[in-house]
Please model this.
Amino acid sequence: MRIAINEALCSGHGRCYVLAPEVYTADDEGFVVQRGTEFDVPAELEEKARIGLEACPEGCISIVG
Amino acid sequence: MTMSEVPTHVPGTCPVVHFDNSRTQPVGGYFQELDEMRELAPAVWNTFGQGFWVVTRFDDQRAAYQDYETFTSESIIAVDPNPQYMWIPTLVDGPDHTQYRRLLNGYFSPANVAKREEQNREIARKIIEELKAKGSCDLAHEFCGEFPTRAFFALAGFDQKDAPRMVELVTTIFDQMGNPDDHSAQAAAAGEISEYFAKLLEDRRANPRDPSTDLASHLLTCTFNGEPLTQETLLNILGVIILAGLDTMKCQLGYSFYHLATFPEDRQRILDDPSLIPSFVEESLRYYTIVQPARKLGKDVEFAGCPMKKGEMVLLDLAQSCRDPEAFPEADKFIIDRQNNKHLAFGPGAHRCMGSHLARQELVVAIEEWHKAIPNYELTNTEPLTEHGGQRGVNSIPVRWDI
Model:
């Protein structure tokens, strides 16, 4: 699974890294570190990645592959 | 009750409502009316005050909040399209807004807020211990009002003795918010808040404190476009933060306790399994959303099926999106362990509530600590409990317990 996080839409709600810290990380301001990037998620963390994606109020996380 | 004519550009396909947000009514009344309005249409015209649009559904609300060029924050109160005040960063958009938020985000970040958790637990325990011996209290004020105020004052480094007066002033401002006719009491209260912070800043300039635990000292180290923040900006930011930080938490925590006091079976679930409290808090934020920001149109736009004109106000009441069945299965049910709870209670877009991380921690801490000390309590009201508009909140939650 490949995840993309839209940098412009992430506003730092923090749901992704609170619910799925194995996949998403907070920066010093509370945004997700990986915003504006695409990255691969190992098979064993795919479920976690989805939980973070589905809890995002902005809808800024998407599966791109 | 103020009412306005329907403008001629509102077509017959866009329903017209008269929704008065300044009433007191039985708890849940506002949520039911807002649900009904959402079912009526994606956008309606409200004749209350000077008249404004209401965009009612999840996808449209989110798109509006995320498009600050069309839906500007020049005013965020539906009945006050031309504010005679400036709120920083609330009424600022675009790159300037981003720059202001960068000065403040760190202070309210999850990492910085986490450092205060133990302190906040102690604050909660102290209030609860004092109340416990009484055998009864009004939860809405004596705990849900008191705890977040003390926790906020501790986080910001303000003197606790000043908290009661600041709460009065903030309450005055919010009480007037649904009233389109009279802003005089609001202006007087804002003036007194400003004087208070002017004195505080004078003190911190003379005696700087640790900027990681003292908000005024932190702001005095900040720069905007390379220059230190002006006195006007400093006063403005502090005033806005206290406005945003006190009544909101009181109202939100009040609804959480209203729910736990009214539905003992749900209370029993969190008593049996306290690890459910964080998801209870999220569901409570979704089901009882209190904040109702508006935006001012920066250009003409056809949106949610209606022709909206530059300069008009658009109410984006977050309870309507948070309870939208298109976005949440069984949206009308309170589901403690709801999954995928992507609620918008803290507002989407760049103006996402800056205090959201603090708010979430306080909500969890308050509910955990209360139920460790006083797990069993019951409502003692003889008349139905009521809620107020403006910023929604339960007026009173009288409970008793065995000592």
